[in-house]
Amino acid sequence: MSLKRFTKFVIFAVFVCWTGFFCQFLNAAVLTYYRYYIVQKGDSLWEIGRQYNVTVTEIKKKNNLRTSKIYPGQKLIIPVKVKGVYHTVKKHETLWRICKTYKVSMEEVISLNRLSDPDHIVAGQRIFIPGATQVKEVKIPEEIISGGKKAPVMPEEEKEVIKFSPSQKETLKEKGILIWPVDQKVKPQEYRKSEFGIDIIAPEGTTIVAPARGKVYYSGLLRNYGWTIIIEHQEIGIYTCYMYNMVNLVEKGDVVEQGEPIAKVGKSGAGEAMLHFEVRRAKDGKPVDPLDFLSSESKLN
Question: Are 106 and 84 in contact (CB under 8 A)?
Fold first, then answer.
């Protein structure tokens, strides 16, 4: 390689590296949000500032304090600064996949970005990712990019009616092969039968797990039911449904194993912390008694 060509190569390499660094720099950001702090006995503005990585001057300015004197029970507004990057949403990307890529809490991202409808983000939208140091590429399954079969979208006027794709399976496999969908480390208080399934009463935030291996058929918001997940279990010939979730941890097309976390228990429209669980036949979508399929060994007392 001649000296001239080598020089051009070095200049080009430096330009590429500098461009990449500059692009990352443009996406780097510091987001400021405000939270309340109740002063405890022995607290000082300096200690509070150190805890939240803000200066005493910033706290005093935000709370109109002339001196540094504070007292127990006093409510202070703390300007919390969070470092991160802005991720520009691309086609086919969802908030769940973005958060999974960056390994951050979806709830935190929703809160920091004040997203009113996390299930619907659009290409070109900028999402702040806390703790990230560089922008990452979100990997999208090939079947989604190529326009594969989409999960059913419920009609606007009857979203509470769940519709399922017909299956060629005419009979259900052996019963009693599902584990209970609520994490057994947290024993629910009770369960009760409802019109189409059972309501499992459990503390808000309790982990919901897949009762058997399957593929996520639907993950999103349903009118009257909130965050909902539907899993198709082809080998068994059933669908399992999970409603009133606080947050969904899986997305349409994901394959889940038995016992794998899929969601967190949320609250019903009446404000009760619970999981509404249904089992439906794959051939026609009709509901069947979940208790017939749940293992008696793990059945709640």
Answer: no
Tell me the residue range of the domain where 275 lies: 158-298
Model-level pTM?
0.48
d(CA 298, CA 238): 19
Q: Which two tokens stand for residue 75?
A: 């409510």
Under the banding of pLDDT at 50, 70 and 90, the label for residue 185 is: low
Q: What is the CA radius of gyration of the chain?
A: 25
What tens digit of pLDDT does each residue of 56-68 get?
999 999 899 999 9
The residue behind tokens 């600064």 is 81
Q: The domain that contains 124 carries what CATH number?
A: 3.10.350.10
Q: What percent of the chain has pLDDT over 70?
A: 75
190 strand-pairing partners: 201
Torsional sign, CA 249, 301, 198, 292: positive
What CATH number does the domain containing 279 carry?
Answer: 2.70.70.10
Q: Which residues contact 79 (CB under 8 A, 6 or more apart)?
A: 32, 33, 34, 54, 58, 59, 62
Q: What is the Cα–Cα distance from 158 to 183, expressed in whole angstroms?
A: 31
- Of 300, 280, 279, which Cα lies nearest the Cα of 192? 300
Nearest to 259 by CA among 190, 201, 197, 212: 212
Neighbouring residues of 96: CB distance < 8 A, sequence distance ≥ 6 = 106, 219, 248, 249, 250, 251
Q: Which residue has the higher pLDDT, 134 or 283?
A: 134
Confidence of residue 146 (pLDDT cuts 50, 70, 90): low
